[in-house]
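step: validate -> pass
step: tokenize input -> pass
step: predict -> running
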Amino acid sequence: MGIARVPGTRKAQVSPATDRSVALQATEPDWKTLYIVGAVAALVAVTLFRRNLSVEVMQFKGFGIIRGVPATWPSSAIEWYTLLQDNTFVGLILLDVVDVINYCLVGLIFLALYGALRRAGKSAMVIATACALVGIGIYLASNQALAILSLSKQYAAATTDAQRSMLLAAGEALLAIQNQGTGYYASFFLVVVAGLVISVVMLRSSVFGKATAIVGIIANGIRLIYLFTLIFGPSTFWIAVPISAPFRVTWYVLSGLGLFKLGQGTPVEAASKQLS
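step: predict -> pass
step: emit ->
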């Protein structure tokens, strides 16, 4: 006697592509928090904590928006100590402490991008992320803003000439590290190369779209040119600055929006196409 089959009920057929999509949707939630953090970091990096903010402050000092900006850049330890004691905020900006915050934000962006693109090119993303993190570490080690601030406080509290002389010598040593540029150039190069590699991976992926990838390639490509002109043709490096900035800001914004959508779970299906 045959078994009656209820009309409308059939055994579900699950395709391999569906299996991969389900598996992807099961694992993506583990990264959602990092995607949101990376998205916020990208938007904050282009609005509040932009790199080279010290140059902007010096260029716009005549508008009186920020008070206490010196007429010229401090060059000696005593000049920096005086500025930091008179206006700690301005002194730290001119010592590029904002760049320290920016690099930390960039680290979060790259970590989130690794999570989003790791399936599109795992080896490339591992190398790019490693380059970015090493570059960020080099910069954090080379920026002496907080150390100089600490010495300025000790100098203000010093009671003898011997103590002041020792603190001035220590300040000059830190300024030599700050000004030599080796750490800046190395970190800049590694982070830009990482951004270029990630943009190429974006071009192969459907997660962020080709527009984001192309803008990233242009932005990081121009920044490489900027770095080479800064090293080998310092009198012309400023030409690349106004050209690269809009592309870099646009890439951060587009990447941030893409990460935010990933954090909301919107483009998970698009991302799964990489596995089919």
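step: describe -> Confidence is low (pLDDT under 50) at residues 1-27, 267-276.
step: cleanup -> pass
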